[in-house]
Amino acid sequence: xxxxxxxxxxxxxxxxxxxxxxxxxxxxxxxxxxxxxxxxxxxxxxxxxxxxxxxxxxxxxxxxxxxxxxxxxxxxxxxxxxxxxxxxxxxxxxxxxxxxxxxxxxxxxxxxxxxxxxxxxxxxxxxxxxxxxxxxxxxxxxxxxxxxxxxxxxxxxxxxxxxxxxxxxxxxxxxxxxxxxxxxxxxxxxxxxxxxxxxxxxxxxxxxxxxxxxxxxxxxxxxxxxxxxxxxxxxxxxxxxxxxxxxxxxx
Length: 251
Hints:
Elements: H1 3-14, H2 20-27, E1 33-34, E2 39-40, H3 44-48, E3 54-55, H4 61-75, E4 81-84, H5 88-97, E5 102-104, E6 109-112, E7 123-128, H6 134-146, E8 150-154, H7 163-166, H8 169-174, E9 177-182, H9 188-193, E10 199-204, H10 216-223, E11 230-232, H11 238-250
Parallel strand pairs: 3-4, 7-8, 7-9, 9-10, 10-11
Antiparallel strand pairs: 1-2, 4-6, 5-6
């Protein structure tokens, strides 16, 4: 439930289109709805301007579907519903109860677009160093799109061929924030940070050989970036990067 949907509900009462009792039925689920195995934070959109997101890993397909349908009912036409780290079994369960749901297999995201989407809040770029980083980059890009941003994707432009990222200046210059996903030594965010006048959100990925240590080397490299406009999220956390980007662009 968003600020706009609450306002529409109150205006509907004022115009006589909705009874107070019917409005109460919708509002009783605030600030959260207890399903017994999860407490769904319907109030988050009112507080943050962005919705709660389902982390599907570790949940059964039935649990994901139950949370998803309740969030879809709570969102109405006012917002999207997103489940990250979701497999095909979870999607099959969700489709049984929410036929309009979509699945993005590379990003491992189940999404339900807002029935009445607002105009795009801003444009960002999602950059990945190599094709192996694409699953994390797609998680970031797809999440950002469901959160109401326009996304330019820039793929396979790692520092081993520096001319590739330098050729993307036009797209990078349009972005109000840039998400950069990289494994190995994690150098790409520093390079991008030196090229753009925007927030750069660095995402270390777990891509790399032995001493990449599952993304720790990239994480430490990004935390030590000499570009002052670079901030860093957790390893493989494309979702977190998209949420930070949406928060920064929408304000």
